[in-house]
Amino acid sequence: MRRPAASFLTLLAFACLPLAASAQRPSDVRARNPGVVLGQNYPNPFSPDTRIPFSVGDASGCKDPNRTYKVTLRIYNLLSQPIAIAIMQEGGGGVATGQPVENRQLTCSQYVAYWDGQYQVLKDGKMVSTGRPVADGIYLYRLEVDGFVVVRKMVVKAP
Fold first, then answer.
1. CATH number for the domain that contains residue 31
2. d(CA 114, CA 52)
3. Whole-angstrom Cα distance, residue 51 to residue 58?
């Protein structure tokens, strides 16, 4: 009986609190941590894949182009279970595309990550696609930049 209650509390703590922060106007979020912006994924709803725009380090007015930020972008189900790590698709600073956005050192710039809408599992220390598409529904994507977290939601819809 304790397990469902604990899962619910975890969901509540993870899903509700960060969403409250991300529901604020973008200027409010920037005022607390300048330079971290998490855009809405597109298309949304989507099937089978989506892009997630984000920027770090005040990309429009970068004051220190040599500074790096530790960046992770993960996708979660509504039970707060990680199901995938986004893949870098575009970006400045000579960042390699096709690499997972997990503990990635990025300079101030705008970036676009990609998610193929498939479940991933941990294998040999790396997240690997299972080839299985996720079920229709609401998912959360969470950007962490040097410990600052922003969360948004996205919708997967069958074609």
1. 2.60.40.10
2. 6
3. 20
Closest CA relative to residue 111, chosen from 45, 48, 35, 44: 35
Total tally of structural domains belonging to the chain: 1
Q: What is the pLDDT of residue 34?
A: 62
The structure tokens listed for 92 are 């400045």
Three-state helix/strand/coil letters over 91-126 = ECCCCCCCCECCCEEEECEEEEEEECCEEEEEECCE
Mean per-residue pLDDT pooled into runs of 10, the chain (159 residues):
47 42 44 79 92 88 88 96 94 78 93 95 85 94 95 91
Contact yes or no for 156/137 (Cβ under 8 A): yes
Q: Which long-range contacts (CB under 8 A, 24 or more apart) does 24-29 make?
A: 29/150
Residue 109 to residues 11, 42, 63, 127, 151: CA-CA distances in angstroms? Answer: 32, 19, 11, 25, 19
Q: Which domain holds residue 67?
A: 2-156
Q: Of the candidates 44, 53, 64, which has an alpha carbon nearest to the alpha carbon of residue 139?
A: 44
Identify whether the C-beta of residue 71 lies closer than 8 Å to the C-beta of residue 104. yes
Backbone angles phi, psi at 78, to 5 degrees: -75, -5
